[in-house]
Amino acid sequence: MHLDIGAALGDEADPGVDEDDLEELDEQVAAAHETIAAGRENGEFGYAALNLPEETDPTRIREAVEPVEDAAYVLTVGIGGSALGAKTVTAALADEPDRHVILDNVDPEHIERTLEGLPLEDTAINVVSKSGTTAETLANFLVVRAAYEDAGVDWTELTVVTTGESGPLAELVEEHDLPRLPVPDGVPGRFAALSSVGLVPPAILGVDIEGLLEGASAAADGLGPSLFDSPGYAYGAVCYALEEEGAAVNAVMPYAERLEYFAEWFAQLWAESLGKEGRGQTPARALGATDQHSQLQLYRAGPADKMVTVVRPQERADVQIPESEHDSLSYFAGADLGQLLDAEYDATVASLAEAGRPAVEIELDDLDAEGVGELLYAMEAATVLVGELADIETFTQPAVEWGKRAARGLLSGEETEETRTVAERPSYRID
Ligand SMILES: O=P(O)(O)OC[C@H]1O[C@](O)(CO)[C@@H](O)[C@@H]1O
User: Fold this and answer.
1) Does pLDDT of 24 surpass 70?
2) What is the distance in A from the centroid of ligand 1 to the CA of 130?
C-alpha cells in the first residue's frame, strides 16, 4: 500500500498542511504510538483490535464453516461492524461477490424480496452480533428462521453464529447446538473485520482469508514511532491535521467498484470512532469515476471544508475500448477501460489540487487478499492514531444508545424518558 499526500500539502491547498506541520506532528505520533503499543501489549479494550492479524485463527473459522462451505449463497444477518467488514471483504475479493447477501436493515419489503429471491435450502445463514442483543439483527434472524421453517428447510444445518457468551443468540446456539464462533475480546465491532466477525462469508466464498491476515500483519509490522514509516499512521496524521485546518468532511472515493463497500465500512469506522465531543470528520461515500459526475462539483467549488481520499489498485482487468468510426472518439484509440479510469483518477486528483482542495491518494499494488488486508488494517491504525491525537475515547459509541432505548420503549409500549421525548418531539408538518 502506498500513500501519496502530495495533493494535500502546500500553501495552495485550503485546508492544507505543510511538511513542517507533519514534522511537528511526528513528535505527537511518537507519543501516541507508545500508548497504542502499550495498549496492544496489554490487550487493552480497543487497542486489542490491532492484534487481530496475529490472534485470529483462520483454521478455526474454516472448521466452523465446513458444514456450509458448498452453499450457493451466504446470507449475513448483522448490522454495522457485524456486517460491513464481511461485505467489504467479499465485495473486494470473492470471485462471485453477489453470492454474499446481507440483511443489515429492517425494511420489510426488502427483507421479503431478498428471502423470496434466495434458494433457502442452498443458502448459509451467518448471524453476527457482538452484543447479541441488537434489535434489527435479532428481528431479522427470527424472520429468516421462520422463512426457512415455512419452506421446510432445516435452518440449524445451515447456520453459523458469531456472538458473545451470553444473550438470546448465545442461548439459541446452546439450544440448537449451532456452530458458534467467538467475538474477539476487547475489540469493538467496527474494528473486528479481521476476525470471525468479518471472515465467515469470505471463508465460505473461497476468499484467501490467510492472505488477508498476512497483509494486515505486514501493516502491523510497519507501525512505529514515526508517521513517515507507516502509511496507516501517515494517513491518520494528515487527516487529523487537515481536520484541525477545517476539513470537516472526508470524502472517500475508491476508483474500483470492488471497493465501494470499503467506503461504507470506513464511514462507520471513522464516524463511530471519532465523532465525539463536538469533533470528528464526516465521512462521505463516493465512487470514482461515477461521482465525478455528481459530487466533484461540490468537492472542487463548494465550501473549502473537505478533503478527498482516493483509492485505487495499480492492477486492473484488461477491457479494450473498441475502435469507433467517429473521429471525435479517436482519443480512445488503443486505450482500455482501466487506462480511462486511471486517467480520470489522475485528472481528478490534479483538478482538486489545482483548485486548492486537499486530496490524499491510497494505492494498492493489487486488489488481492494481502492488499485488502493491509488497507483495512492501515485504516484501523489511522483511526486509533487520530483518536490519540485528538485525545478522545475512540472505542465506544455512547451516543447511539439513546435511540436504541427509545425504539425499544416505543415497541414495548413502556413509557420512558426517551419515549416521552419522542412523543413530544417538535413537529411542523407541511403537506
Ligand atoms: O454487533 P452488535 O452488537 O449487534 O452491534 C452492531 C453495531 O451496532 C453498534 O453497536 C451501533 O449501534 C455498532 O457499534 C455495532 O457495530
Assistant:
1) yes
2) 7
